[in-house]
Amino acid sequence: RTLPPQHRLALLLVYGEGFDYDHAAYVLDASPETVAGRLVKITADLADHLAAAERAHAEVADGLRAERLA
């Protein structure tokens, strides 16, 4: 899944280029609160994605252990 362009730009400007929220907001023609909200959304989505990947990895590992014991 890809990020919407405005979310991607907020991420790039703040974490990639080191802009503060005010400067990123100016570039994006949005409020600093909107920039902050987009970054919160990205962080939450990433945490969900990583948790799902971790669960899938654990299921595969459990299956491999079960095969070895069988």
What would you note in describing this structure?
The structure is a single chain. The chain has 70 residues and is an all-alpha fold. The chain has three helices and no strands. The protein has helices at 5-16, 21-28, 32-69. The longest helix has 38 residues, at 32-69. The termini are far apart.
Condensed summary:
This protein is mainly α. It contains 3 helices and no strands.
The total count of strands amounts to 0
In the predicted model, the low-confidence regions spanning at least 5 consecutive residues are none
Q: Give the averaged pLDDT, no decimals.
A: 92
Order of helices and strands: HHH
Largest sheet data? none
Terminal CA distance: 37 Å
What's the gyration radius in Å? Answer: 18 Å
The backbone outline, from C-alpha atoms, is rod-shaped
Structural class: mainly alpha
Q: Roughly what fraction of the amino acids lie in strands?
A: under 5%
Helix count, DSSP H or I runs of 4 or more residues: 3
State the helical fraction: over 70%
Keyword list:
rod-shaped; mainly alpha; 3 helices; 70 residues
Please outline the helices and strands.
Layout: H1 5-16, H2 21-28, H3 32-69
Helix pairs in contact: 1-2, 1-3, 2-3
